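>> received
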Amino acid sequence: MTLLTADQATFYQQKGYLTPIDIFTEDEAGALYDTFRQLENDHGEALRGYGRNNAHQVLPLFDQIAHHPSILDVIESLIGPNILVAGTTLFIKEPEQPGFISWHQDARYNGLKPYNWVTAWLALTEVTIENGCMYMWPESHLAGQRDHVDTYGEDNLLTRGQTVIDVPEDKVVPIELRPGQLSVHHPWVVHGSGQNTSKKRRVGLAIQSYIGTEVDQHLGKTYVQLARGRDDYNHHFLIPRASGVMIDDEVNIWHAANRELRKVLYHDAEKLGKY
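>> returned
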């Protein structure tokens, strides 16, 4: 097992994030990205818009990442041995494109309580300041929920363009990753990412999120997979892992899961966004 050290776990608890964590070699990550490019060629239209969500349910590539033992070892160090995969999101920033992610907290809109869960973000390509890496505000999770403003910004890659105002940008830390490296962050840590001003594509998969089995959904319904341990609570709709690429029955479940996710993320919203 590749559990975190005590120092790493302490850093996460104190700062609200941990990075970088080596999961795949660059060659292995390159092979994953090549597979993704082929899937894009074959199914790219289906992965646009809110189709970027929960692709692990219909694509074995992302299923294997979400259930990778080395990643689960990291997560077990943070939330314990009973782990559910509650969702994934594919984040792509094309070269020299204006898309960005505003300052926000993952726990603000997703209805998952208690907060024994963590978001993991795996780089499939190089992730740099120039191509729009994430930034974390260290220790911001310690204050709990912060006020957000829904902007619905055209270039904002979040559902509502939800934004925390007055983030001290002199205190934020860039999260640069090589292909195959992972970062993890706390539900309440404030984070965001800038535009890709480079000529290189930035691609990452967020496992959003890994939750303890005691965590319930308070705003709707979540489709989950058991990743490790046992679930004695049965709060969620348990689904099987992907058995192949875009299998019809699994695609139907995927669409249902994404419809339910939209209901949660847009709970009490004034309108729907494109994600």
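>> The chain has a mean pLDDT of 95.
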